[in-house]
Amino acid sequence: MDSAEHDRSERLREEILAVARREAGAIRQAAQQAAAAVLAKAEGEAARAREARLAAARAAAATARELALAAVPVAVGRLWAEHVEDQLDEIRAEILRRLTPPAGDERRETVVALAAAAVRQLAGERFTLLLSLADAAAFGDGLATAVAGGAGRQPLELQVVGAAAVPDGGVMVRDADGRQEWDNRLPARLQRLWPELRRQIAGHLPGCAAGADATGGGGA
Fold first, then answer.
1. Bridge-partner residues for 129, per DSSP?
2. Which end of the chain is more exposed for a tag (fewer CB within 10 A), N or C?
3. Could you give the CA distance from residue 66 to residue 54 in angstroms, rounded to a whole number?
4. Helix 186-202 to helix 3-98 angle, to the nearest 10 degrees?
5. Within the chain, where are the H helices?
6. Which tens digit of pLDDT belongs to each residue from 106-137?
7. Which of these, 125, 116, 111, lies nearest to 176 by C-alpha position?
8. 22, pLDDT greater than 80
9. Strand, coil or helix: what is 31?
């Protein structure tokens, strides 16, 4: 190869290398730009995901806070209702403790009134008056006549019987066939009257006037 031919080969090689270097630079620049775009997109998506998680967390926290605040008056009301029930239970227990029959003539009058009220609740004409053993012995047969007069119903056939299950000053009335019974012992009478008494008592407890139980009372 002569000198001229050698020079042309060198120039061609240099031009090819120059083109290759330019192409490589362009490819490298394009790759860098593409990588930067992918990175920017990934960072944007990550930022949006973080914002979405934060927004969801804030919404959940707000909901939890609202639920907690809403539960406060409910919890307070429940605790207050439990307190009121405890007070009413104590009052009822105290009433039962003090619910003792009177003595003497007043006690006889009490038994007559209780028996007459019980007879008025039942249908029929023949009844057994169950009294305590002491009351049955003390008041005698004359009690039946007094009860019949107090019941305001004629004719009536009443039998006085002493029963160990009946406390002093109380009475239970049964019809002759045993199908009807009216328990007018003092604790049973209190149980029937308690719903109405409870409503009235609760109305006088502090903070309970508006929330007193509206359940009506039973018969006397």
1. 160, 173
2. N
3. 18
4. 130
5. 3-98, 104-120, 133-139, 142-151, 186-202
6. 888 989 999 999 999 999 999 999 999 989 99
7. 125
8. no
9. helix
Give the Cα separation of 110 and 25 in Å (integer): 119
Token pair, residue 160, equals 């006085």
Name which of 151, 155, 172 is nearest 163 in CA terms.
172
Structure tokens at 22: 């330019």
Matching residue, tokens 């008025």? 120
Q: How far apart are CA 144 and CA 157, in angstroms?
A: 8
Contact, 174 vs 130, CB < 8 A?
yes
Residue bearing tokens 């967390």: 57
Sequence-ordered list of residues with C-beta below 8 angstroms from that of 186, at least 6 positions apart, any chain: 99, 101, 167, 169, 170
* Nearest-angstrom CA–CA distance, 81 and 202: 11
pLDDT score of 104 more than 80: no
What global pTM score does this model have?
0.53
Instruction: Provide the residue type at 184 as one letter.
Output: N
Instruction: Kindly state the tokens that stand for 176.
Output: 């002759």
Instruction: For the chain, report the end-to-end CA distance as a whole number of angstroms.
Output: 140
**CA 161 – CA 177 distance, rounded (Å):** 15
Joined tokens for residue 42: 């990934």
Residue 14: CB atoms within 10 Å: 10
Residues 148, 126, 169, 149: what is their CA dihedral angle, to the nearest 10 degrees? Answer: 0
In order of 61, 72, 142, the CA distances from 67 in angstroms are 10, 9, 70
In whole numbers, what is the pLDDT of the chain averaged over residues?
A: 79
Residue 182 CA: distances (Å) to CA of 122, 172, 199: 7, 6, 24
